[in-house]
Every structure is written in structure tokens, then in C-alpha cells.
């Protein structure tokens, strides 16, 4: 198959890039599930954007830089906060409806924001609203085609130029798609941890395929843990938005004691890494697997209207959040690192661009400010689409390349040759216990040893999605662990109990490539 542009992933960054690319040629949007099934659709909290009368771009910039703990790329942050308002207004003009207070947008507060800055939709269904608006915009553009249920096995890179990708259809057919430029927007990798807020599709595929293709990755040690995911062993993991604490929710240990004020002057609204570590330490101290989030003191009607999805979901598990304490624990939430890009999404491989969670522009530094990720997807999706479009126009000779291409002949490992579910489960537990919120040399070395034991799976060639996902999560887990071992210091979301201070070279960035 041949197209002008190939976009891998259909979350906010991928769709926004596709819309931009459609001005330059035909676009295929590939996604391994149905298009709306990704982290974007599940995002609750909202979008941080300097649009309120009290806010300024400068305040948003300052808060983002502060949260990033000294490791943000300032140029990337400037782009984010400056272009954010225009991108959001454009989204509204495409049909996205954010919650209003009278005639004006309603702004919520989240941790580490110095001002109410978070716009939201249907209370706590912001991602869903954005995804729906983008999908409908995409539908109106005749030169964008969707290829759902296609898994990207690998990128096609020849002479250090990306020419497309090798895909696996739901029916098990392997086929190449050639393109002038490829945009990676495959999202995050939370599924490498046993505790995660991410959907099942977040297996780090984009990071793994780029790594195998020779791309440079950076900041892989910086994984953000969200302080509050629902903790009910019988229920699937479910995020309890930071906006709950923004509206006055408080954290209590299992003895019913409020504890956050002991750990930080901003208490429940301290940066995420601090709240997550505080919860973990209270859980240890009280020998419990969870703490409680309490919003029973808030007006019941307000809670139901502000958090309708959370209210309904918890009620399914017999927790009425207006009356009951909610059991919560921290969970892996967001990858700050990823495929290294410039502020136009260009990676170290010509023809390969990346945007959104899979990419690392450096905009989040060592710790992402809450609700900056949807904004990042919109802003950098658009920029990346534009840059990839311009690049693609200059590319000649994709047809002869496609004609000469021969599918790599490699022995395919049959499904069932490995106990893949066991590997997956063991890896996720290992990552949670040894490469989680608090790490040290001993735990990281043990994890790396175990991950290296699965090296053969990383090198094998599979033609089944489940096996390919496990192969990818092994690679991503190994890269995170390697970077975490290399950073001998604690910065932002990366906390080492054996090096509690940042260390002397802490301002440097760790890059990894094959
Ligand atoms: C949340 O609603 O707490 C998640 C928002 C985010 O991760 O930025």
C-alpha cells in the first residue's frame, strides 16, 4: 500500500497531526484498536490553558517549568503555552464543548498550578469530548483514511530514512505501507507496570519500534505516577482525577488521619511525585495497600455534576463517593521521556516524526504539570503534522522504493511458543516493585537482570499482536530501567532512595539508542 503520510496512533496528537497533514496529501491513520480506544479518550481532568481573565501565558510557563524540576526544554514550554490558547479555540470551533460558567469557560484547579487554569468537558470526560471533536473533523476530510485494528510491527527504515511501516492486520496478514513521512503518535507505556491508569493499548509500541529502527530516545527514567487510582482488587484500574483534590478532596490513611500537610506545604495539591511518595510511605507505615480519598464534605449535588463519570463508575463498585471514603493508591500514569524530537516533531531518523506521549520534546522535563498532556497533543500534533507535511512534499521516489521492497524473510515464532502471559505478568510486577515510585541500585539491577533474561523474546519475530506487545514492553521496560540506573540522583518523578539528592550532573539528559 502506498500513501503520502502515515500516522501511527489515533489519540489527540495523531488526529491533530492527520488534520494538518491532510493539507499536504493523502493520510492513513493506523491504529491497533478502534480509533477512539486510547489514553486520550480516558483523560478526565482537562486541559491546562492560559485562557482565563486572571491567567497569563507567563504564569502557565512558570508553573510548567517549576513542575519539570529544572529539566524542561524552555523553548518547547514556550511553544506549548503560547500556541495552546489558539489551538483550543480552534478545537472549540470544530465542535468541542467545554464546560462553561455563564458565558465564560469554567476553570478548575489541579496540583502545582498557581491559578485555576484547567478547562474540562462534561465534568470529567474531557478526553472523550476532544477525541470526538477531532474524529468528526477527520471524518469531514476526504483524504484521511483510517486503518483500524492494524498493529505496527516495525518501521521501514532504509539508509537512515523512514519510508513507512510493516503492519499486521486483525486477520493475521503482514503488509507494508509506504509513505513520504511517518508520524508516530502511539501514546504511552503504562502497561509495563502492574498498577496503571493507562488503557490496555498503552504498551509502548511506538517507543519500541523507534528504538529498533535506531531512533534516539531520551529521559526514559522519568515515569509519572498518578497519586490516586481506584484501589479495589475486584475492579479494573480507574483514575480518580487530580481535579477531585483540586476541588477540595483530602487524603487520609487507613486510620482516618489526614497526612499530606506533613509532607508538603501545599498538602493534597503538592506536585504528583511528592503526593505519590507520601501515599506510599503512609501505606507502608500503616501496613496497607491503599489510603483514602475523601470528598464526603463537599456538596453532594456539586460532586455528582462535577464528576459524573467518576461518580457512576465508583457506584458500580458500591462506592458512593458523596458518602463513602474512596480507597486509592498511586499508579503508573505518564511517560515524560520517549522518542527525542525537536519542537517540530522531527526525530533523529529522517522522515520519522513523533508527537504526544511517545515523543520527548522536553516540554515536561522531569515531571509533567497536571493537564498539560492534552494540550501537548494538540499543540505538538499540529506542529508535527505541518513539519511532516512540508518534509513529505520534498520527498521523491517513494514509488520506486516500494516497488523494490522485499518483505524481510525471518522465521516467525508461532503463538504459544512462549508462556507470554506469564512473562507479561511477571514483568509488570517486577517493574512495579523494583522500578516504581522509589528505586535504588539494588532493585534496578535485579529488574534489569530479569528483563535481560527475556532478551530472546525481544529478538524474535512474531506475527501475533499479544506476542508483539509483550516483545515491546520488554524493550521499553529495559530502557526505563537502564536509564533509571544511569541517573544516580533524584529529580522530579525519578526518585532513588540511594541517591536522594539530584547529584552533580543532574542537568544532563540520558539518551539511549540501539
Ligand atoms: C487527572 O485528571 O488527574 C489526570 C490529568 C493529567 O494527568 O494531566
Describe the model.
- Among the domains are: 104 residues, Flavocytochrome C3, Chain A, domain 1 (Alpha-Beta Complex); 101 residues, Methane Monooxygenase Hydroxylase, Chain G, domain 1 (Up-down Bundle).
- Helix content is 37%, strand content 17%.
- It has 17 helices and 22 strands.
- A hairpin with a 2-residue loop joins strand 4 and strand 5.
- The radius of gyration is 22 Å and the shape is globular.
- The structure holds succinic acid.
- The site of succinic acid (SIN) has 9 residues, from helix 7.
Lay out the secondary structure.
Blueprint: E1 5-8, H1 12-21, E2 27-30, H2 39-42, E3 47-48, H3 57-67, H4 74-93, E4 100-101, E5 104-105, E6 118-119, H5 126-139, E7 144-147, E8 150-158, E9 161-169, E10 174-178, E11 181-184, H6 205-213, E12 217-218, E13 223-230, H7 242-246, E14 250-252, H8 260-263, H9 272-285, E15 291-294, H10 300-306, H11 308-316, E16 326-335, E17 338-340, E18 352-354, E19 359-360, H12 373-394, H13 398-404, E20 412-413, H14 420-434, H15 441-452, H16 455-459, E21 461-462, H17 465-486, E22 511-512
Parallel strand pairs: 1-2, 1-11, 2-7, 11-18, 17-19, 20-21
Antiparallel strand pairs: 3-6, 4-5, 8-9, 9-10, 12-17, 12-22, 13-16, 14-15, 15-16
Helix pairs in contact: 1-5, 1-12, 3-4, 4-12, 6-17, 14-15, 14-17, 15-17
The structure holds succinic acid.
Succinic acid binds next to helix 7.
Q: What kind of sheet is the major sheet?
A: 5 strands, parallel
Structural class: alpha/beta
Give the helix proportion (percent range).
Answer: 25-40%
* Strand arrangement in the largest pleated sheet: 7-2-1-11-18
Shape: globular
Listed once per kind, the bound small molecules are:
succinic acid
Query: Could you say what the CATH topology of the domain at 228-331 is called?
Result: Flavocytochrome C3, Chain A, domain 1
Indicate the mean pLDDT: 96
Strand content: 15-25%
What is the tally of helical segments? 17
- Return residue spans where pLDDT drops below 50 for at least 5 consecutive residues: none
CATH homologous superfamily classification of the domain at 228-331: Succinate dehydrogenase/fumarate reductase flavoprotein, catalytic domain
CATH class of the domain at 228-331: Alpha Beta
> Radius of gyration, rounded?
22 Å
Per CATH, the architecture of the domain at 228-331 is: Alpha-Beta Complex
Q: What is the number of E strands? A: 22
Note the gap between the termini: 28 Å
Amino acid at each position: 500500500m502506498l500513501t503520502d503520510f502515515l500516522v501511527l496512533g489515533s489519540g489527540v496528537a495523531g488526529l491533530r497531526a492527520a488534520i494538518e497533514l491532510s493539507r499536504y496529501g493523502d493520510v492513513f491513520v493506523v491504529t491497533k484498536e478502534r480509533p477512539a480506544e486510547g489514553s486520550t479518550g480516558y483523560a478526565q481532568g482537562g486541559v491546562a490553558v492560559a485562557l482565563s481573565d486572571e491567567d497569563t501565558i507567563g504564569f502557565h510557563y512558570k508553573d510548567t517549568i517549576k513542575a519539570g524540576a529544572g529539566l524542561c526544554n524552555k523553548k518547547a514550554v514556550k511553544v506549548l503555552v503560547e500556541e495552546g490558547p489558539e489551538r483550543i479555540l480552534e478545537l472549540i470551533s470544530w465542535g468541542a464543548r467545554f464546560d462553561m460558567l455563564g458565558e465564560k469557560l469554567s476553570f478548575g484547579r489541579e496540583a502545582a498550578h498557581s491559578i485555576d487554569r484547567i478547562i474540562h468537558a462534561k465534568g470529567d470526560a474531557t478526553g472523550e469530548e476532544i477525541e470526538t471533536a477531532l474524529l468528526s473533523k477527520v471524518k469531514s476530510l476526504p483524504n484521511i483514511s483510517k486503518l483500524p485494528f492494524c498493529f505496527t510491527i516495525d518501521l521501514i527504515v532504509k539508509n537512515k530514512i523512514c519510508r513507512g511501516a510493516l503492519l499486521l492486520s486483525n486477520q493475521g496478514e503482514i503488509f507494508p505501507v509506504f509513505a513520504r513521512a511517518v508520524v508516530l503518535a502511539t501514546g504511552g507505556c503504562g502497561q509495563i507496570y502492574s498498577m496503571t491508569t493507562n488503557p490496555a493499548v498503552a504498551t509502548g509500541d511506538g517507543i519500541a519500534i523507534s528504538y529498533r529502527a535506531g531512533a534516539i530516545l531520551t529521559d526514559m527514567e522519568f515515569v509519572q505516577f498518578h497519586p490516586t487510582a481506584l484501589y479495589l482488587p475486584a475492579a479494573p484500574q480507574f483514575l480518580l482525577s487530580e481535579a477531585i483534590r483540586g476541588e477540595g478532596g483530602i487524603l487520609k490513611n487507613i486510620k482516618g488521619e489526614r497526612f499530606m500537610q506533613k509532607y508538603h506545604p501545599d498538602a493534597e495539591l503538592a506536585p504528583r511525585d511528592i503526593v505519590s511518595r507520601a501515599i506510599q510511605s503512609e501505606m507502608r507505615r500503616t501496613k496497607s495497600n491503599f489510603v483514602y480519598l475523601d470528598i464526603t464534605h463537599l456538596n453532594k449535588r456539586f460532586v455528582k455534576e462535577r464528576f459524573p463519570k467518576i461518580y457512576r463508575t465508583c457506584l458500580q463498585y458500591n462506592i458512593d463517593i458523596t458518602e463513602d471514603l474512596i480507597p486509592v493508591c498511586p499508579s503508573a500514569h505518564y511517560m515524560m521521556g520517549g522518542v527525542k524530537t525537536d519542537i517540530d516533531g522531527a526525530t533523529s531518523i529522517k522522515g520519522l516524526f513523533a508527537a504526544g506521549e511517545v515523543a520527548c520534546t522536553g516540554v515536561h522535563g522531569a515531571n509533567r504539570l497536571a493537564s498539560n498532556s492534552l494540550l501537548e497533543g494538540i499543540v505538538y500534533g499540529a506542529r508535527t503534522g505541518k513539519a511532516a507535511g512540508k518534509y513529505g512534499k520534498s520527498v521523491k521516489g517513494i514509488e520506486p522504493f516500494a516497488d523494490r521492497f522485499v518483505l524481510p524473510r525471518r522465521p516467525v515464532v508461532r503463538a504459544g511458543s512462549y508462556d507470554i502471559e506469564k512473562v507479561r505478568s511477571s514483568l509488570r510486577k517486577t517493574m512495579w516493585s523494583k522500578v516504581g515510585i522509589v528505586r535504588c541500585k539494588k532493585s534496578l539491577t535485579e529488574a534489569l537482570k530479569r528483563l535481560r533474561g527475556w532478551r530472546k523474546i525481544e529478538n524474535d519475530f512474531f506475527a501475533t499482536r499479544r506476542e508483539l506487545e509483550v516483545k515491546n514492553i520488554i524493550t521499553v521496560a529495559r530502557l526505563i530501567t537502564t536509564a533509571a540506573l544511569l541517573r544516580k540522583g533524584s529529580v522530579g518523578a525519578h526518585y532513588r532512595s540511594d541517591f536522594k539528592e539530584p547529584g552533580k550532573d543532574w542537568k544532563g539528559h540520558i539518551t539511549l539508542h540501539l
